[in-house]
Design goal:
The complex is a heterodimer of chains A (310) and B (270). Helices cover 29% and strands 19% of the residues of chain A. With 310 residues, chain A is an alpha/beta fold. The chains are: A alpha/beta (310), B alpha/beta (270).
Chain lengths: 310, 270
């Protein structure tokens, strides 16, 4: 029976999820306003990128639809880490789904300050370092250079005992090199991938659609690209890889799990079909039951590396 | 907030004016819940589209369980909606956002430019039911693009066309200015409006020159929108005093003094 399948997964350092279905940073807010999503099907919530101080975000226009995808340049609009600790964390502490705070900033000190503030706070289950935001000045710099990515990861690792994911950018020549660097620097897992840099131009007005010119591309159009990155990372890393990029159906999620992802994050689909969380959870369970696999660890096509974290 | 994820069924499709489509859907919980000025996120299945499309309810009939949507074809999503017919199912998310505040006793001027008229049949009906005196100002390029006056029972309807083919020859903002001077006291009206951003900016400029407070104006905003529920932060509107409002949860109906009109952009999509 599908409801007896064990869908639990460990992302390291004691972070155990009851389901491999997570929601991606920026697509679920801080978990309070996602109408229609079924939290009982969720493995974890990853919050909006959070910086030391509050940020207003970019001028409109911030989003645009493109074929089977969307561009966004929100610009890390968020209330700042103090608000998260004071107002949100006490509520999360009463929830039965772990909340992972996505951490962002302009400099190593920003990330370290946010991580230090969040360490030991009840209601916060882990951190995801956003070293790959394409929509703020210098947002990408940490994610494209393995040495800087490692330096940032080590800096945060030194000030927190929380499970630590690092969200990788695909806007690099060799994503595996960055993945290896953050693994060696103490990351407990990687999330792959963040958005691809892209743009759209308004031909009538003869100007970029987005106020910043470029933005991050997400949605079904990037799924094959994300899947390839996960395939490469899962073969190369010892730590879990969380697959994210254009997942819309249970079949999409299964592709990532078969490619070696320990868990998946749903992103753009949350804007369109809040019920996707439940549908994808149930679809994975049904697949495992139908194929007599019993647990997630039996899914990856290449077995050796991933078995360790199930 | 009650949300309707169950499918609605199209029960009527018509062309209420040139270049516009009106779809009437049967969905009793939404018809009972929606307030004038609120919107729904409609799922569209056009190839290569992914986001829902935000549409204000044009009107609702709670007894009959029906809601009307009036729109024109501006892109793939609205093109897909335009070929829905009786019996087709629609996936509605809503009602969402803040509608117009209809409280008060002063006369009301409703002012619509182009497809901005789509929100007003239900608004006027609700105002008339509250015994408020309503003047409906309709602006369009030409007479065939005006929604018929019988959609605004109980209101005085005045029209303006760019080509002079019906009513006032010129913009609806100029019609507004002359109406306001001619018919009612300057401090004594509430104004509800929806239309293209340049029209709204012209209105704001005129109102400032007339010495009217912006607090007396409510605007139904049209912006590009992602989720419609406050999560994606995509539908930012410049807020007076700095920062941004979100059209989906702070609006779409917003008091005009809360907006920084100098920073407004005129982008929208379909």
């Amino acid at each position: 029976m599908a409801d007896q399948v064990d869908l639990s997964v460990s992302l390291g350092r004691g972070l155990r999820l009851r389901s491999p279905v997570m929601v991606a940073s920026g697509t679920f807010g801080y978990g309070f306003d996602a109408h229609g999503a079924d939290r009982t099907a969720l493995g974890a919530i990853v919050t909006k990128g959070t910086t030391p101080g509050a940020r207003e975000g970019n001028a409109p226009t911030r989003i645009a639809e493109t074929p089977s995808a969307m561009l966004n340049a929100i610009g890390l609009q968020n209330p700042g880490v103090d608000h998260v600790v004071r107002v949100y964390a006490p509520k999360w502490a009463t929830w039965d789904v772990p909340v992972i705070v996505n951490v962002a900033g302009d400099a190593v000190d920003d990330y370290v300050a946010v991580a230090r503030r969040l360490d030991g706070v009840a209601g916060i289950a882990g951190l995801e370092l956003n070293i790959s935001c394409p929509n703020v000045a210098n947002g990408l710099q940490f994610g494209v250079d393995p040495r800087m990515a490692a330096q940032l990861t080590a800096g945060v690792r030194a000030v927190t005992r929380l499970p630590l994911l690092v969200k990788l950018t695909p806007n690099v020549t060799d994503i595996v090199a960055v993945g290896r660097a953050v693994e060696d620097a103490g990351a407990d897992g990687v999330s792959a991938i963040n958005t691809y840099l892209g743009m759209a131009i308004d031909v009538r007005r003869r100007r970029p659609v987005l106020s910043r010119g470029s933005g991050g591309l997400s949605g079904p159009a990037i799924k094959p690209l994300a899947l390839h990155a996960v395939w490469e990372l899962a073969a190369a890393l010892r730590i879990p890889v969380v697959g994210v990029g254009g997942i819309t159906t249970a079949a999409d999620a299964l592709e990532f799990l078969l490619a070696g992802a320990a868990a998946v994050q749903l992103g753009t689909v949350n804007y369109v079909r809040p019920q996707a969380v439940r549908e994808i959870h149930d679809g994975i369970a049904a697949y495992i039951a139908a194929h007599d696999l019993r647990h997630l660890g039996a899914l990856p096509i290449r077995q050796a590396r991933v078995e360790a974290h199930v | 907030m009650s949300l309707a994820l169950a499918p609605a069924v199209v029960v009527q499709r018509s062309t209420p004016m040139r270049d516009a489509i009106e779809l009437v859907v049967h969905h009793p919980p939404s018809a009972a819940a929606v307030k004038p000025g609120q919107f729904f996120q409609l799922a569209v299945a056009a190839p290569q589209t992914i986001l829902r499309r935000p549409y204000s309810a044009a009107w609702a009939d709670p007894q009959g369980g029906r809601i009307g949507f009036i729109f024109n074809v501006v892109g793939a999503g609205s093109g897909w909606l335009a070929v829905r017919h009786e019996g087709h199912e629609l996936d509605l998310l809503g009602p969402l956002g803040r509608g117009f505040s209809l409280e008060g006793e002063r006369p009301v001027i409703c002012m619509a430019g182009g497809l901005g008229v789509a929100v007003f049949p239900g608004v006027v009906q609700a105002l008339v039911a509250r015994k408020r005196r309503v003047t409906m100002l309709l602006g369009a390029r030409t007479s065939s693009q005006l929604l018929p006056a019988d959609r605004f029972t109980g209101a005085d309807v005045l029209t303006a066309t760019d080509d002079g083919s019906a009513g006032y020859h010129g913009s609806v903002v100029n019609l507004f200015t002359s109406t306001l001077r001619g018919r009612v006291g300057v401090e004594a009206v509430d104004i509800l409006t929806c239309g293209p951003t340049p029209m709204l900016q012209a209105l704001i400029e005129n109102v400032r020159q007339l010495g009217l407070p912006l607090e007396s104006i409510q605007v139904a905003l049209e912006t590009p929108m992602g989720c419609g529920v406050g999560t994606c932060l995509g539908c930012a509107i410049p807020r007076a005093g700095g920062g941004y409002l979100l059209s989906c949860i702070d609006g779409p109906c917003v008091r005009a003094d809360r907006i920084d009109w100098g920073r407004m952009t005129d982008a929208f999509h379909g």
